[in-house]
Amino acid sequence: MRSDSSNPRSGWKISAMCLAIGALMMLPRPGAADPPPAAKEPKPPCSPMPQGAIGALGCELQQGLGDAPPAVLVAAAPLRSDRPVDEPGRLTARVAKVLAGVLGKGAKSTDEPVKLERGRALASSAGNLLHLDIELKGGHVRITADLYPVPKGFWDRVRDPKPSPVRHVFVERRIDAEVQSFLPVVPLVARKTVRAKSPESDAVALACGDVDADGALELVLVARRRIHIGRIRSRRFVSVATTDWEKHSPIAPSPLREPIASVSIVEGRHLDIGSSDRARGVRFAPDLNKLGELSRAIPWPGGGCSKIAAMGVEGELAACMPTDSAPGSRVHEASSDAVAGAQVSTRAGQRILVRAARRFDGVATLWDEKNRAASVPGVGAQLAVGDLDRDGQPELVSGANVRHAKSDALIVHTWKDDGTVFERFRMAVPTGVRAVAVCPPEDHGPNPVAIATNTELWIVR
Amino acid sequence: MKLGRRAWLMAVASAAPAYALGRTPIDGRFTMKLPWPVDSIDPHSLDDPTAALFGSAISDPLYSLDRTGNAYAALAASMPKRDGQRLLVSLRPDLRTARGRSITSRDVVFSLTRARKRAGAGPLSELGRFDATDPLTVAIGSTDAKRVARALSSPVTAILPSTFHPSRPDGTGAFSARVTSNQLVLSRNPNAARGAAFLERIVVHRASDLADALRSFEVGDVDIGWLGSGLHKKRRGAVRFDAGAVGWVVLATGTEAGSWGGPGVAQGLIDAIPPERLAHLKLGKLPRARGHAQWGGPPIDIIVPNDSPHLREVANTVASVLARPGHELRVSPRPRNDINQRRRSKRFGMLVDIVRHIGPAGRDSWYALAASLDPRRARHPPELGSFEPRRIARTMSLGVVGELRVSGFHVGGIHLQNWDLGAAWR
């Protein structure tokens, strides 16, 4: 038998064999050096650190929507708000624009606030509509986003003229300076002071924030023996969690005669608490279960820890725990007896870390990541930093540098963009300021300030 | 026993509250000149005036008493815990003295054993053995936790390192101490177990007599005027202070006094001295005179430590009031070693010395006065209706002349908190 290449049937057979051999050769061999397909890494959380609330909301919406279809039209409904807004259309347009930018893949936005029907009409050529319902309420920006397919053809419109949303996402953030720039100016006046009996008469530090990320604010009250997390309800401090220092850290071998203490909250994750009374600081879960130990250090609100020296807090800043990322700035004043810090949003939507430390002579130094610095004399030994009126210019909140409680006061200084510092507000606290904290915004007024006095907790709104 | 809230607060930082106003300035210093020796400090000594004045600044006991007399943990980690027929006292970890020595249970046993042979004889007499069971635990042969904590709260049971020597004092107090023959320097102790002092330094010079101390204040050489505001005239701007008594000035009688050395005689003689004759010595409030202030025994010496000008002046005054022809009293200043030997053997006529307060007024007064005569006697206090020192002294061969008071004047700007020098500031 001989082969006959002119036979079309035998030619087909040869071609098929060659293809099969080729295909076999191209198949991956078991144990070959090809790397296994990489596991799909979870997307990083949308940290509020580098960006303001609008940027963070855009990031969260994008993550919530997953792989959005290309060429989406992002349109926002008319703004709903519990307060008057100067130009509501500008705010909704800004949010829509940021989200369209984050989505990419040809996504566009419309500046016009539109209801859903109008949005469908506008998106008829795009094919998909992402409709945003933006609401300002209780100091938060809340966005509900629904992704609607838009029927393209005639018969599609006949079959389902108003298709239901195929994806739905809800996100919220607290109002920051960028959002506030669309709102009327917040007057820095105390409208109301709520007083509650303090569970401890020897508070050494106070913090305020959404510790467990449940949307409600909590106070963290650190006393010399105990730590409380709780809320003020009907003029009473209601403890949510309490623990004794003794269970977590022994008395320091050489405590300071006048204790220095601080709390740093990372919302929803943990809180770091340090006191010069104690041999070690402690990292707690939001329910006050111990997560780990810090060294003998004072945690800075805003990140980082400084060691406790013979008479005060050392100048160098370091990560509180080995697993933490390094703090933004490394060194502050040579030695201080009170520390504070906070992330503050600028009106442009940038978030910057502002820190403050007090020297023993009662002069506080403010500095930020842009290497700006300012001094504030006559400051008491409890500090807090925040943007009370959300104008992008941070406030230093402190007690007075006096020896007797009767003369004590809550003092608020504003560090202006031009570098100057001036006193904005002063309120007598004749029972003495033992600890102070700035809370996140609750409503359209200034951020509340929490004060621990000898016998009471005050919330100045 | 659970550590009380108030007790804990007191324990952590002495008397310093956690004021969140301005903080207490921490760089001050001041000087003073005292008519007392400054060349050594022994917190366990009953007759050491330097320890009476500065012992609490350089050392701490295991427990302390709050204003209501309840004990709270100071160097101890907690109140004593029952363990069968004994009590376990735990020490706070990582304690260090001013000279950097670690304090462990061995130092506690050393200190309590040493104190029991000295000024702590009374308060510690009812406690059994002290045994170090581990580096941070001492077992004490007693089952009464309250009584043990109270006994261990006396300043004369302070915890010292086992290398302690009075001329090289060391402890866990707010200050470290350096002594020379004529100067005591207290410097802030960064290792202080209950908080370092606010003041950077206190320098104490030795005065040659009461006038020297007052003169130095009057001319502005020092910042504290001991017992007065100046020798000739009041220093301008001087502020009065009175931090109370830290001991008693006593007159003891020995075997050389013959039948006049019996119990009650010395107190009877002192009670007869008109208070105005002793007023310039600033010995506190003195009772009205009653009886005859006349020595009827043989001519004898009143011995007095030669390093204490204040006591010498007391002895001179007492001698001038009580002596009469044929019954002379001659003041004889002697080295403290000689005084201590004579006190032990009772071979003296009269002795003027001090006895430190070792606790709150009451039973501790009896312990202190009894131990000053013989530590072995200071064991079982009698049931007395009153523990007022002069009444106690009538049962002993000594008399209480007056109080060793911490009082005088200081320049403006100094803040003395009841002679708690750790909390003082300028």
Strand and helix layout:
The complex is a heterodimer of chains A (461) and B (426).
Chain A: H1 8-26, H2 53-65, E1 72-76, E2 80-81, H3 88-103, E3 108-109, H4 116-122, E4 128-137, E5 140-149, H5 154-159, E6 167-174, H6 177-180, E7 193-197, E8 203-209, E9 218-223, E10 226-233, E11 236-244, E12 261-266, E13 270-275, E14 282-284, E15 290-293, E16 297-299, E17 305-307, E18 313-316, E19 331-336, E20 338-345, E21 351-358, E22 364-368, E23 373-376, E24 379-386, E25 395-400, E26 409-415, E27 421-428, E28 435-438, E29 449-452, E30 456-460
Parallel strand pairs in A: 1-3, 1-4, 2-4
Antiparallel strand pairs in A: 4-5, 5-6, 7-30, 8-9, 9-10, 10-11, 12-13, 13-14, 14-15, 16-17, 18-19, 20-21, 21-22, 22-23, 24-25, 25-26, 26-27, 28-29, 29-30
Chain B: H1 5-13, E1 29-34, H2 49-58, E2 63-65, E3 71-73, E4 81-83, E5 86-90, H3 105-116, H4 121-124, E6 130-134, E7 137-140, H5 145-151, E8 175-179, E9 183-188, E10 201-206, H6 210-218, E11 224-226, E12 239-253, H7 265-271, H8 275-278, E13 300-305, H9 309-322, E14 329-334, H10 336-345, E15 350-356, H11 363-373, H12 389-393, E16 398-410
Parallel strand pairs in B: 1-10, 13-14, 13-15
Antiparallel strand pairs in B: 2-3, 4-5, 5-7, 6-7, 8-9, 9-10, 11-16, 12-15, 12-16
Strand portion of chain A: 35-45%
Number of domains of chain B: 2
Q: What is the string of SSEs of chain B from the N terminus onward?
A: HEHEEEEHHEEHEEEHEEHHEHEHEHHE
Main sheet specs of chain A: 6 strands, mixed
Main sheet record of chain B: 6 strands, mixed
Spatial shape of chain B = globular
Give the uncertain stretches of chain A in residue-range form. 1-11, 18-40
| CATH uppermost class of the largest domain in chain B | Alpha Beta
CATH architectural name of the largest domain in chain B: 3-Layer(aba) Sandwich
Integer tally of domains of chain A: 2
Chain pair sharing the greatest interface: A-B, 39 and 38 residues
Roughly what fraction of the amino acids of chain B lie in strands?
A: 15-25%
Cα Rg of chain A: 29 Å
Structural class of chain B: alpha+beta
Strand segment count of chain A:
30
